[in-house]
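Appendix C: a fully annotated inverse folding record. The material below is reproduced so that readers can follow the format used throughout the book. The structure is listed first as tokens, followed by the designed sequence.
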């Protein structure tokens, strides 16, 4: 259930992993080697509950006008049975299957085309790029072409809307629930395939982790970087395409449906399209940076990412636009401007915080942050091989305010999306609640890893920067 939002570097500075002229990896990467009973229970609960949550939210909009409480009350009171809701659920259709299959194949085709955008867009890093060093010491190369795929896809979308008219721009909304069944088929199929692949023909056996517990391995993944051939990387494809490329198309389809139903597109719908569109474009503009984040460098590829990117991301990250189809909200100009400002400030904080960290890392601290030479904590740690490594943890700029201030910017942007929908229903606020839980959990998990990695030096760092997200609060 990942996106760039929940995929940040967990180190605050530049890590110098150099031994005899070559880079090495440390033993903290990836998910656990063993699954305790508490983790196993949580895994099973997530496997059961997450598909139901997606179904419940989508059907609440389809049958109960986006009310989350009404179906629950009727179910608990016995006035309606789960089978009644199921009987009213739009079923799988061959049209949806053809649409979804065509979409995935088209994105896979674009994924394999060499990137040309980096040749004419100043500042954009695309083309063949190197990822992080894996625990097995492998530095994979990636074809970074997500921005190109997004531009081609959306150019064709608008060409269809304004010229060819092969299909209605409301096609995604009109087939939204049948497409849900197709997304689940792909998500589960890829989860099963990559589990079998890891067991019988892994891309790199040294980058696999087995716990001998099927449920944990199935959900959290076994292979770190499953691939077919040299270039088709499952994790990069499913993290970025088809889900995130589709994100803006889904919102555009919602806007088209709102116009079809009510004769206008409200300013709230425009805000959702603009703010989330900015996020998506930022993701693809910085796709090379994404290679060094937790999702690509540390997370193994299992149900968590395969199903999450196929189902959870496109269906629950777009709830604001879906809600606005059923409940069009025209915001007061001052309120709309305030939301836009909150979204832009959140984006600025997120982007500049990451820029400061990258600048500090790439210059080894020989730079200026907010006009001053940056302060940092020097750390020493020992890898699993017994080799000493050195890191510098940044404590200047945004990173002197909180240890995960980029997450703070993320949360500000997430709140802006939700505020576009007014205050009548809780459903569109699921996103900010989910992101808050997810990012707080990620903070704790990352810091546990860093504490084990750096030891007493991490304590020095947390003493220098005592807050995680919100200065003076948390």
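Designed amino acids, in order:
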């Amino acid at each position: 259930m990942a996106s760039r939002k929940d995929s940040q570097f967990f180190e605050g500075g530049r890590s110098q992993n150099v031994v005899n002229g070559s880079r090495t990896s440390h033993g903290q990467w990836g998910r656990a080697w063993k699954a305790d009973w508490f983790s196993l229970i949580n895994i099973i609960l997530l496997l059961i509950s997450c598909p139901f949550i997606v179904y419940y939210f989508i059907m609440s909009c389809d049958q109960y006008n986006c009310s989350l409480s009404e179906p629950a009350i009727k179910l608990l009171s016995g006035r309606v049975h789960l089978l009644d809701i199921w009987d009213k659920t739009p079923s799988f259709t061959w049209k949806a299957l053809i649409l979804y299959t065509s979409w995935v194949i088209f994105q896979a085709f674009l994924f394999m085309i060499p990137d040309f955008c980096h040749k004419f867009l100043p500042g954009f890093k695309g083309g063949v790029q190197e990822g992080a060093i894996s625990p097995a010491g492998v530095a994979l190369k990636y074809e970074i072409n997500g921005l190109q795929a997004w531009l081609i896809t959306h150019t064709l979308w608008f060409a269809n809307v304004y010229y060819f008219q092969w299909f209605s721009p409301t096609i995604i909304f009109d087939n939204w629930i049948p497409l849900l069944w197709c997304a689940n088929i792909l998500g589960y199929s890829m989860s099963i395939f990559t589990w079998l692949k890891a067991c019988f023909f892994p891309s790199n056996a040294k980058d696999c982790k087995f716990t001998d517990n099927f449920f944990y391995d199935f959900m959290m993944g076994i292979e770190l970087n499953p691939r077919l051939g040299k270039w088709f990387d499952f994790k990069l494809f499913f993290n970025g395409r088809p889900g995130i490329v589709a994100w803006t198309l889904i919102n555009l389809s919602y806007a088209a449906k709102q116009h079809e139903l009510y004769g206008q597109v409200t300013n709230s719908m425009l805000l959702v399209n603009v703010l989330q569109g900015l996020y998506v474009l930022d993701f693809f503009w910085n796709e090379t940076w994404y290679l060094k984040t937790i999702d690509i460098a540390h997370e193994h590829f299992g149900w968590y990412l395969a199903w999450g990117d196929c189902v959870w991301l496109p269906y629950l990250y777009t709830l604001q636009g879906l809600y606005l189809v059923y409940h069009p909200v025209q915001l007061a100009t001052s309120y709309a401007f305030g939301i836009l400002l909150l979204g832009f400030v959140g984006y600025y904080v997120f982007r500049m915080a990451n820029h400061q960290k990258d600048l500090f890392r790439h210059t080894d601290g020989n730079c200026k942050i907010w006009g001053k030479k940056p302060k940092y904590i020097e750390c020493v740690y020992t890898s699993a091989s017994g080799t000493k490594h050195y890191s510098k943890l940044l404590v200047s700029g945004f990173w002197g305010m909180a240890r995960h201030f980029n997450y703070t910017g993320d949360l500000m942007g997430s709140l802006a999306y939700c505020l576009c929908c007014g205050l009548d229903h809780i459903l569109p606020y699921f996103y900010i609640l989910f992101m808050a839980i997810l990012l707080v959990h990620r903070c704790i998990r990352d810091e546990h890893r860093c504490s084990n990695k750096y030891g007493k030096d991490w304590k020095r760092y947390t003493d220098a920067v005592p807050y995680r997200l919100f200065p003076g609060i948390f």
